[in-house]
Design goal:
It contains 8 helices and 11 strands. The protein has about 250 residues and is an alpha/beta fold. One of its GO terms (biological process) is proteolysis.
């Protein structure tokens, strides 16, 4: 179960079409991080860490924050000196592999439990759940485990798009892929569309942004999650059955 001293902001996306990096989420970001604070940025989900950190520094700098990439020194020390942490998007498997290799996964888990504000976007949002099993990404590397931070007690599928796909295309829809996840796992999933986010403050978990989400739970049809929905019950509700294997 997630720690109730937490301050967690989970964005579906970091860039909204036609807007600057993080601009669409300026209001929740300002409410989340202390004004003028120092933000430790985790760039591991992309290949070029320096370039990615510069992008995050520009986006958060426009909101009045100072940004330091965790790769520029000892990652644990950079996080220890920060007023908040932002884990950027990219490839979730690459991100997970790196936070395991650097020891940052345990550092983040401890620091967020102690009250450090955490913000994730896309892959950084998936990393905040119990596991990374509901990412949209290809496994371009093999992390030691799929176990993630567990900052919230349900899975998240960012960039969620419902409905059909191109006529004649025989691949699975997003709904079908999440249904396959639930055949093997009991933890529910929030489909989080672009432009929306989840805020977890202590025991309160709320869906915000501009577009409704979708709840996927074993044994039930997908259900709409209107903006403003209280998601806290998803963390404590009995699971509809048991997974076939360990939920790591």
């Amino acid at each position: 179960m997630a720690d109730h001293g937490r301050r967690v902001l989970l964005l579906s996306n970091s860039t909204q079409a036609g807007r600057d990096y993080l601009a669409h989420a300026a209001a929740p970001i300002r409410a989340h991080f202390p004004a003028g604070g120092r933000i430790a940025f985790v760039p591991y989900a992309l290949h070029d860490w320096d370039r990615y950190t510069a992008k995050a520094a520009a986006g958060l700098g426009a909101l009045g924050y100072q940004v330091t990439g965790v790769h520029t020194g000892d990652p644990a020390a950079v996080v220890a000196e920060a007023d908040g942490v932002f884990v950027g998007g990219g490839n979730t498997f690459r991100l997970t592999d790196a936070v395991y290799r650097t020891g940052l996964l345990d550092v983040l888990r401890r620091r967020v439990a102690a009250g450090l504000p955490y913000m994730g976007a896309s892959a950084g949002t998936v990393l905040a759940g119990p596991s990374i099993r509901t990412t949209n990404d290809m496994p371009i590397v093999q992390p030691p485990s799929f176990t993630a931070l567990g900052l919230v007690g349900f899975q998240i599928n960012p960039h969620y798009v419902g409905g059909g796909i191109a006529p004649g295309h025989m691949g699975e829809t997003r709904e079908q892929r999440l249904a396959e996840y639930l055949e093997e796992n009991a933890v529910p999933v929030v489909g989080l569309p672009e432009g929306s986010w989840i805020t977890a403050l202590g025991g309160t978990v709320t869906l915000g942004g501009t577009r409704d989400g979708v709840l996927f739970a074993r044994g039930a049809d997908p259900a709409p999650l209107p903006l403003g929905s209280d998601l806290a019950a998803l963390e404590t509700a009995p699971r509809a059955g048991e997974p076939r294997g360990p939920e790591c």
